[in-house]
Fold this sequence. Notes:
Strands 1, 2, 3, 4, 5 and 6 form a six-stranded mixed beta sheet that branches. The chain has one domain: Kinase associated domain 1, KA1 (TATA-Binding Protein). The protein has helices spanning 17-30, 102-114; strands at residues 6-13, 34-39, 44-55, 60-74, 77-87, 99-100. α1 (17-30) packs across α2 (102-114). The longest helix is centred in the first third of the chain and has 14 residues, at 17-30. The N and C termini lie far apart (29 Å). 22% of the residues are buried. The chain is α+β, with helices and mostly antiparallel strands. β2 and β3 (44-55) form a beta hairpin.
Amino acid sequence: MTLWRELVGTISFRVDRDSAFTDLLSAIEALDLQVCEADQHKGFIVVRCLTRLVNLVLWRCWSDKLVFEISTTGGASTTVKVYAIPNLFRTGVGSNEKVFDLARIVDAVKVNALWR
């Protein structure tokens, strides 16, 4: 899909892959994130949201997309890896753009996974 992506979180579900996909999709929609692409057979969901991936003193690396990859770990367990896709050409944020907190997105999906 992309040449460079940064692993930002791993989430474990105690259900099969199809149920994990459905639970993950509902958790993403509950966070009011825009789903760009979702493929249950290939096991991925692409979400369009603006997050700050790296924050150094004079330089920030922004991410426009998050990729959730779903894989079966055996039995009825599923692992979801969350990747941020860096946009090296983005230099700032517009006044009408909303920046999402990357850690809060991953934590909210984890909480949703625990309660399912």
